[in-house]
Each structure stands twice: as C-alpha cells, then as structure tokens.
Amino acid sequence: MDSSTALAFCYTKAAGLLSKAYIKDKTSHLFNAKSLVELWSLLFDSPVPAVPEALLADEIEKTAFNNLLSQYLSFLNKYDTPSQLLLSQVQFFEIENIQLIMDSISAGVPNLPKLIDLKSYSTINASAYPDLQAVLHDTPFNWIHENPQISNLEQIEFKMDLSFIKSVWDKMEHTKGEDKFLWEKLFLDEYIIKNIVWAMRLSVYYRKSKKEILDELFYVTDRADKLDPVAGPAIAILDKSIDSYEDWQNWKYKQYLNPYEGGNWELDPAWFERRFMSSSVKRYVQFFHEHPLTEPALVAWFKAKLCELRCIRSAVESIRLNINGTDAMKALGVIME
Q1: What pLDDT, in 10s, does the model give residues 308-332?
Q2: pLDDT in tens, 83-131
Q3: Which has the closest alpha carbon to 122: 110, 138, 111, 101?
Q4: CA distance 64 to 77
C-alpha cells in the first residue's frame, strides 16, 4: 500500500487493539488471575498448553511478546516502503540480538543463541555465527571488527546503543512538518528519563562523581553537556543533593520522587522509575488519540503495548511466587502507596 493508505489501515487496526489492551484501569485484571492457566485464558484464545507450570510461565511471556511483535511487523508489511523511523522500533530488537550474539561469542558458546525473529526486517547474517564480522557485515554495526572480550562488552554495547540513538535523532531532524515535533516528543520523553534514571542510579547506588556519570550518559549532539536535548536534563540534576528534598522542590519531575515524610530523606531511583513508568502508558494512549493517522501515533501504540507486556510479565511472576496481586501492582508502580 502507499503510505497514506497503509497508515489509515494500521491506525484503525491499532485503535481496536488498544481498546482491548490490559492497560490503565484494565491492568488489575492481569493481577486478579489466580493461576497461570487463568491468566493464559484471559490473554489468548488458543487452548492452554499441556506443560508444567514453570514452562507455562515462559509460554505466556513468549506468546505475549511474539503476538505484539508480529502485529507490529504486520503493520510494517502494509507499507510499500516503511519509513526509517517506523523501522527503528524493530532495529532496537536487532541490537538486542547482536548483543546476545556478542555475549555468546565472548563466552565461547559454540552454537547460535535463540534470537528474536524479526523476519525480513533483520539485517544480521545469523548463519555466519560465530564469525562476528560476517554476522554484522550488512548492519549499521559493521564497525565492530573484532570479537568482543568479556572485559570490554559493556563499552561496545554502550557505543552501539549510543550509535542507534543518534541515528534515530538524525532521522527525526530530517523529518518535515508536524511529524517532526511529534517524533521528538516521543523520543525525548523516553530517553531523557532513561538518562535521568541512570544518572540517579550511578549517583545513589555507586556514588560516582559528576565527571564519571557524564561519561555514561546518552547524547545526540557532539557530547553530553547541558545543551544536549537528551543529556542536559540528567546533567542538571547532578548538582542536586541526593539527601536533601529541598534541592528538588522546583524540579520538573518532582511529582515522581519518593515522598518526604519528615526526618531523613534520600533519593530513591527505583521509586522514581516505577512512578514514571506507571504514568507512561497513559501518556502514550493520550498521544495516540490526540494525533490520529500519524506514524508517531503508531509508535505510541507500540510503546503502550510494551507497557502492557511489562505488566503481563509481572503478573506471571507474581503468580509463580504467590505474591498478592495488589502488592505486585505496587511493586510495579501500577498503584502507589
């Protein structure tokens, strides 16, 4: 289909799927399930697999993920030529596959690990495993010339993530019209918070210095500084005291902080992340409805469904560990104390 016809078809289909998703007020249905069999029956129309409980838990998570990915790929298939920004959502999983391959090579694993099936949208030559250069030959990461060692895996993976983020930003900056603003809004909403959470963790859990943290932040310009649209907001918090609630009084994201209840207070990165994540699905759904028949709206749909997937995985874990549904939703940030 041409782009406008494909977009109209996909948006209409996505709207129907979103109305049935277990998100927002419907999230509790996932955590009300008393068994994995009940959860399977809630989520899928197919018969419950006749497997042990431990395997059924894996089957639920795998089937939920595969269904979501298959649906998104089916949207891409409607286009004669999908835009690079729509494809970027798939490329994120391509990076996961490559990093899994590198992990296996560095560990000396002789056989190719199980990869996410991206169908025709995969650019890696998996059959060339364990020859990493041949695996990556047709990918944007063919600059990795040597098999990674366990000691430098983190550094290479950070460079890959940074390369991907800067590539997506560059594509957005070459987009014209209102869509450019919408793509930027989605992108910044995600990566500003990822940087902030990471900066918080490095500061609170690892007690790293400001200079050390700067070296580990994502950025989309030439370097991580206060002027960078992705790194800037994270850098701005590095001068705040992690044990002084007053320092955060006028901060843009104050509403997501762990509350001050008198006495000693220390910044809680996990609380902040859970609180923000719990509100993300509402923003994505609102974005989807406020910007109909746009490609960014399709990505907002995909991200809202990823939030649902996160809740499904948490519901599976709570059933396996016999955790009360309300407690599990609090731990996930779906509801807050």
Answers
A1: 999 999 999 999 999 998 888 888 8
A2: 999 999 999 999 999 999 999 999 999 999 999 999 999 999 999 999 9
A3: 138
A4: 20
Please report which confidence band the pLDDT of residue 335 belongs to, taking 50, 70 and 90 as the band edges: low
Cβ neighbours of residue 204 under 8 Å, at least 6 residues apart? 242, 266, 267, 268, 269
Q: Which of 58, 88, 59 is nearest to 72 (CA)?
A: 88
Could you tell me if 194 and 218 are in contact, meaning their C-beta atoms sit under 8 angstroms apart? yes
Spatial neighbors of 313 by CB under 8 A, at least 6 apart, are: 61, 64
How far apart are the C-alpha atoms of 263 and 47, rounded to whole Å? 54
Sequence-separated (6 or more) residues with CB below 8 Å from residue 62: none
Mean pLDDT of the chain: 94
Residue 333 above 90 pLDDT?
no
Cis peptide before 140 (omega within 30 of 0): no
Residues 21-44 have a mean pLDDT of: 95
Amino acid, single-letter form, for residue 51: V
92: Cβ contacts below 8 Å, ≥ 6 apart: 164
